[in-house]
Amino acid sequence: MRTSPYMNVPAFEIGRPAHFPSKHGAAVAREQLREYLEAQVGEDGCVRGQCESRVLESVLSLHLLEQVGLYPEARGQLESYLRAQYIDEREDPLHAVLRRQALGESTRRDAQAVRAYLAHFDHFTAQRKRVMFSVLMAVLGLTPFDPELTWAEVAGGEEKYQSWVNVVMASLRIIHAMGCGHPEWVSPGDVELLTISQSTNGAWEKHLLANILALLALRHFPLRCLSLQNGIGLLVSAQNADGGIPFIAGLEIFCTATAGLALAGAGSSPALLHRMADYLVGEQKRNGGWAYAEDVHQTDVDDTAYCLEFLRAAAPVRHAHAIERAEQYLVDMQGSDGGFPTFVAGSKPEIAMTAGAINALAPNCEQHAALIARGIRYIITHQKADGTFERSWSLSETNAIFRALLAMRRLPECASGLRLTVELAEEYSLDYLRRSQNVDGGWGQRAGDASDPISTSYALIALSHFDEPTTIECGVRYLVRQQQADGRFLSIPDQAGPRPIAWNVPVLSEIFALLAFDHVLAARPAVAMPIWKAMASQFSSMGMEAR
């Protein structure tokens, strides 16, 4: 599930000066946005980001309910949701095809359009995703089941997967075997795994797509009818007000940590920040890490890095033990090549995760200098020729760029031999940001895409730590113009899962915009101490840490 922002701010010292003529406009926009975001914090300190409905899960849920003949009202609401969706087929051929199929409007070219779309997957999980959608297309009747499909290609050898990937793959194997008319291919272990996944009081791991696939598999086993009925009931309970089904049922921890970082930089009260910090500490797992939402057991580097940075900024004494445990969690996740994976130690590293971990650990540089140097080396050796990086859990190039740039600026003294290489890598990324800026001042997800607020926010976070006054000035003006009358920001979906399928939690647009204003307004010719230290000093002087 994943993004990144001011989570990185506490972990760096501002470098070269930047001067922006429109700082006043940014300050006014930030104040209005701060008030809006503070109102999103609940009494328990949580920011409960609502995940929007998505066509993929809605189509599969409708198909499931039609197959089992249950919940006619929910089926009608799903159909209404799908009929109300406008989808630009040039931008999103997958969801356009799925919507047409669900509504009985498919054409002969639809299966070919999906195959062409899947052929452009450019991620290390691409083969697994192609197999997944090959099975789903057959489930929905777009193509026949392929009996020649070989699961060995996506087994991953000794690689360990996050919990929901195991459930998804077990579900797909069962669905494929039954669809091909070979029930003898079904592993009893797969059936048992799916049965267990439906035995909780809420949607398992809050991962609705994994739950839907498990239910589509379990419907083939009458003896598992109780698990099936329970799972379908929980699925229907997650239906949004618009009638659709979202990708996940919650993003509380991710939203709270990132919002906390943004509000800390914007000057929110220590009392509010402590309430948010207390909430997050209550959600920390035994291994020291955090998951993306409440009641999710699978921890990850991304959320842990965000939470660690926020706790260090808002309550370094109050939650010193939680900070220490989170640091150890991240240290244990680094691979021998210096990179960090998202979920499971030993899995393939990712640039954005590596940068996030470095930024979170950097304030304790003396202890982690060698780790940080190895991580930075991993980042710069995996930079693309155009200055970009693999995009990880964001669809925007500027997300991975800003995280990587902030991490590179944390190069420890013991790795001074990398200095020139780091500066060259920085210039490559800065050149990409200059070239990809649109005439309206904003940035899109990729060079040539229309501008959107969240991609622009990412770019401004990166640029505000370099001497780029003209580029930043245009970007700030664009972002200020996008603010709504109530302080909000509306943007396109940026999160990806399963990668690269987009999903959206609207409050993230506000969070990252506030983070961008924080960075822009914090940039100044000289800083005596990192922002995280300044925050901690301010809170301590107010007597908050003694409580």
Would you spell out the secondary-structure blueprint of this structure?
Blueprint: H1 23-38, E1 53-54, H2 55-68, H3 72-84, H4 93-102, H5 110-118, H6 126-139, H7 163-179, H8 188-197, H9 208-218, H10 225-237, E2 245-246, H11 252-265, H12 270-283, H13 301-314, H14 320-333, H15 351-361, H16 365-381, H17 397-408, H18 419-436, H19 453-463, H20 469-481, E3 495-496, E4 502-503, H21 507-522, H22 531-541
Antiparallel strand pairs: 1-2, 3-4
Helix pairs in contact: 1-21, 2-3, 2-4, 2-9, 6-7, 7-8, 7-9, 8-9, 9-10, 11-12, 11-13, 11-21, 12-13, 13-14, 13-15, 13-22, 15-16, 15-17, 17-18, 17-19, 19-20, 19-21
Could you explain how this protein is built, in words?
- This protein is mainly alpha-helical and 547 residues long.
- The protein is built from 22 helices and four strands.
- A hairpin with a 5-residue loop joins strand 3 (495-496) and strand 4.
- Helix 2 (55-68) runs parallel beside helix 9 and helix 11 runs parallel beside helix 21.
- The radius of gyration is 23 Å and the shape is globular.
- The two termini are 35 Å apart.
- The model is unreliable at 1-21 and 525-547 (pLDDT under 50).
Helix content: 40-55%
* Global Rg: 23 Å
The quaternary structure here is single chain
Overall pLDDT, averaged?
A: 89
Note the main attributes of this structure.
547 residues, two-stranded antiparallel sheet, 1% strand, disordered C terminus, globular, mainly alpha, single chain, 22 helices
